[in-house]
Amino acid sequence: MVGIINRMERDGLIKRQVDRQNKKYTRILLTSKGKTLYEKAVKLNTFVTIISSLPEEDKRKLKLYLSTLSKAARKVPEEQRNSKRKLLKGED
Hints:
two-stranded antiparallel sheet; elongated
């Protein structure tokens, strides 16, 4: 467990804080980076739960459609993708 905490601290996800009332205890607190990662994990878990509830045939179709979209997106030049993003956001 200590190894995991050390790596999370090294990566800026948590910070340690000695308990003010009992110096034998150290609290582990999420940093803003850790909170952001946690929120992403919760959203991903929700997405996985939703996808998992689909019938197998729908999952297969979704995978096929996403693969098709991904391949098509890779064919669009970068500058064109950026200009379309601006249009979708209402920017000129």
